[in-house]
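thread: overnight batch results

M.L. [08:02]
morning all. the overnight job finished for the chain we discussed friday. pasting input first so we're all looking at the same thing
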Amino acid sequence: MARHGSGSSSDGGLGGAVGGGLVVLAVIAIYVLFRMTMYIIQTFVKYHKVAKALWYSLSLFVLMSILSGILSALLVKQDYSALVGIGFVQLFLTCVVVQRKHANTFMVEDVSIRDTILHRKWWADETTPMAA
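M.L. [08:03]
and the structure it wrote out:
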């Protein structure tokens, strides 16, 4: 007795695997874009008054997006939509640079080493850290 209709065949297996892989890649890409957007928003909230480079980068992103839309509409080509992606990446990289520049990770307080040495107790042993 031959079975028809149900079961998987080897003909559609490769197409299903490729389709499933593309769905997984699309979900990952959406997640990465979401996290990048949140990083950009957090950077603007934190450093919008300090870093003018953020505003220059945002204006360049908006300009590239508008230019991409105009060129795509006039020339009926979707090749120019890559300008939006390029603008987004440059905005993200600017935010990364601003965050790194203003981060105080691993930075020592502003203390003079001369003052630290002169005001150190003479009875302290050699293992006592200077900044303490």
